[in-house]
Amino acid sequence: MAKKLVAIVGSYRREGIIHQAVEGVLRQTRESGHEIEIERIDLLDRQVKFCTNCRVCTQAAGEQPGLCILQDDMAGIIAAMAKADYLVLAAPVNCFNVTALFRCFLERLICFAYWPWGRRSPRVRSKRKDKRALLISSSAMPGPLQPFLSGAPRALKAAADLLGARTVAVLRLGGVAVRKKERLSPKVQERIKRSTAKLLL
User: Sign of dihedral through CA atoms 70, 74, 79, 85?
Assistant: First the structure.
């Protein structure tokens, strides 16, 4: 039975570094020899409304994500991710964190938490980690500084945790805002190849 990979792309630039990196992962996946269905979800093309903090989705107990009252594309995105064995979560650093596109998506993942009124804090509905995740971020700053100078790595990891995914590979691409049309270097392409191999183990 074929496995499934879902890539969530939270970038504004169609041909930017994040898009190129995700395409590199998908290409390596196709060439891996594994039977894997691939679905790429560009948040730029989907309607994901702002979470209103009404907490309706957090009230009912159970392991399944709560139902949101907002009518948009998020339910379909959640359904796609539920069928995934592998997740690729990708976003550039924008003003010291992930983009608003990805942040909006992340806030809507509150449905994966149980938080009834009267309780001081939420808890994740399920502690199962039955998916594998690759996290990709890009920035003008050197990649190793991202965890110290931005909230992007933590935001991507939070999304993976809520979705029941174990983070098995991380790509932090730095120094990529020098040219208007930046291209992936051979060195970065090799890193993408290695990270994809880790993801698909």
Answer: negative
**Phi, psi dihedrals of residue 67, rounded to the nearest 5°:** -90, 130
Write b or e for each residue in 146-177: b if 16 or more Cβ atoms lie within 10 A of its Cβ, otherwise e. beeebbbbebbbebbbbbbbebbbbbbbbebe
d(CA 48, CA 19): 19
Other Cβ atoms less than 10 A from the Cβ of 79: the count is 10
User: What's the CA gap between 113 and 121, in Å, rounded?
Assistant: 10
Cα–Cα distance measured from residue 13 to residue 44, given in angstroms and rounded to the nearest whole number: 9
pLDDT in tens, 144-170: 999 999 999 999 999 999 999 999 999
**Residue 109 token pair:** 């993942």
Q: What's the CA angle centered on 90, arms 178 and 115, to 5 degrees?
A: 135
CATH 3.40.50.360 fits 3-199, yes or no: yes
Average pLDDT over residues 119-137: 96
**Nearest CA among 124, 132, 133, 136 for reference residue 162:** 124
Tens digits of per-residue pLDDT, 49-101?
999 999 999 999 999 999 999 999 999 999 999 999 999 999 999 999 999 99
Phi first, then psi, for residue 27 (nearest 5°) are -65, -45
Split at pLDDT 50, 70, 90, the class of 113 is very high
